[in-house]
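[agent] plan:
  1. take the single chain provided in the ticket
  2. run structure prediction with default settings
  3. attach structure tokens to the ticket
  4. add a short note for the reviewer (M.T.)
[agent] executing step 1
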Amino acid sequence: MNTNASMPSSESVIRVQRFLQNVGHPNAPITLADAARTAQQAADALGVALGQIAKSIVFKIKPLDRAVLVIASGDQRVDEKKVAALVCQAGQKLGRADADFVREKTGFAIGGVSPVGATARLTTIIDNTLFRFDTLWAAAGHPHTVFELTPAQLQQITSAPVADIVVNATPVAPSFNDSLDARWERAKRLQPNGVPSPCVGVCTMTTLPAAAQQPAMCEGCLRTLPEIAKWGQLSDTEKRQMWDVLRAREAALF
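[agent] step 2 finished; step 3 output follows
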């Protein structure tokens, strides 16, 4: 990863930084040494798969001149007809936006459009193929700045729906790793200090029906409800022991 550069002081980058701080996002923007105006350039600079780049594409609804922000996986091609079916009404058409329209409606220049921090509220849609990956990278208001997030965090901070909006030349197989070991790695990124909760960004918090002679367990983290309630009272050593217990439960179940 080539990040040997100082953070640009542009107003658009500051907007994104403030937004992320205000929502408590754990990963601040970083600066790339070379500009990444395309998804491929960003992937090359970060050393990640092209699909892990959450590219932001602005469309225009005609004749309303209303902006639509599509956040798509870098290795996918957006199907404008699918997007139009979701956002256009009778007599309306969807088209690509030019640089002036993008700047006017979002406050960003093409190549640095962020999924958050726009100067106006945007209709936003998230490509469902982004959920193949544990980690994504998105522009942070400038071609040199990006920030890291998970697909779940992207949906949370944008409050945008997830939909099938890409050209499906071939089916995309999901590759989301939901094992407890993978959850530990994701949770440690979200909560780097101390022992993270198994529910940080990964737990569904719905309960499974209790089996015979067994208490109900959380479907996401495999803890019982009393164990969840007691978590905050445990020492770090006891929390690590609980993680070991959960891994044993997972092995027994699956």
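[agent] step 4 note for reviewer: Helices lie at 11-22, 39-46, 80-87, 99-106, 151-158, 180-190, 225-230, 236-253.
[agent] ticket updated
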